[in-house]
Structures
1.
Amino acid sequence: MSINIIKMEKKLKKELDEERYQHTLGVMFTAASLAMCYGADIERAQAAGLLHDCAKCIPNDKKIKMCEQYGIEINKTERRVPSLLHSKLGAYLAKSRYGIDDPEVLSAIQYHTTGKPNMTVLEKIIFIADYIEPMRFKAKNLAAIRKMAFHDLNQTVCMILEDTLHYLDEGQGEVDEMSRSAFRYYYNLFHDTEDDGSSLTR
Ligand code: FE
Ligand code: FE
């Protein structure tokens, strides 16, 4: 696969505000570092990191219109919180406007917000890079999560999902069902299966 990162950067810069563009670069470099650490394909990690938020700055009503126009299914949570659609729509635009046809890169973009059960290495890398890139500062446990990211991908995904669900359940936002099933899956990798972690996150 040969992807022209520089060309994509130039195009993307016009679509995002400055803050989002800087975040995007942070995710791209962090994803590349994680790919080095885990022996994943660096170029794919860069491409997915660069494009993961390519639909983020589209106004919410336009996101809905575009999804309807392109036949992208909108679930109940996404109807209420249209900003969640930037992942699905982003995967669509990565293909149609940026010429990405690698299904793994596209699904890493698609699931970067919610995560999902049984992710590929690249999907985990993008999910994690989005959370830990250098410009992030608000989330709790960031130092521990950043350290874990370079030791164990599954543990890191589990930590991020647990903190995200707690944060959202405390009234800061809505939880997509996919995030809950992702958390149950990763929690069960480290705990006995009688306990699915739902007491931790409802
Ligand atoms: Fe995002
Ligand atoms: Fe992001």
2.
Amino acid sequence: MPIDSSALVKMFNGIAEALEADKERLCALDGVIGDADHGIAMALGFAAARDALASLDVAATSPTQIFNTAAKSFLNAVGASSGPLYATAMMRAGAAMKEKSTLAAADIAGMIEAMARGIQDRGKAEIGEKTMVDAWAPAAAAAAEAKAAGKDATAILSAALSAARDGAEATKSMIAGKGRSSRLGERALGHIDPGAASAVTILEAMAKALTS
Ligand code: ADP
Ligand code: MG
């Protein structure tokens, strides 16, 4: 089943709901190695995106415009470092689906790859620096691999999610090279990165919304 603008609005609603539900856990994770606001920032940002999308005429809105609207409202709502990172991710996802009204499996992989690339271009973090990149980059690689193998959107999303989970878990044994927690040095060891944790929540909500 092809994925259209209305499916993407549903996806953003699902992400907003999932982050609202996960807000306290994400703040607690950020409380250990950061400033305890990550859950608030993410829930606020995606609630703003959801509200902005609710005022659109979806039938007259392209997938690119959906992502651009979400990006702008997210950036305006979020003052934390996740604001520009996810705004860039969403702008890139929008650009990757330019001229399309429905998304096929390959476009879903392209969306995840574009988001990961945007986050890396914007924040300049490499894999292993204990950031959201440690979830997004492996998710993008898994999505690309599933796409190359001709898998459907459900399989692509599930491969991306599983790679993101492993990547987020791996941040426990990392010292941060970017962001607030980089000041902690070895004291960050043993703790999962909040940005990597929320990336998993986002991909989970994406998979749920786009495959049901
Ligand atoms: P802040 O650190 O400004 O309070 P948040 O709490 O919303 O922002 O987000 C913290 C998360 O942002 C970190 O857990 C990490 O995953 C991510 N992050 C920080 N800096 C970068 C960066 N340069 N590149 C990618 N992700 C980053
Ligand atoms: Mg924070």
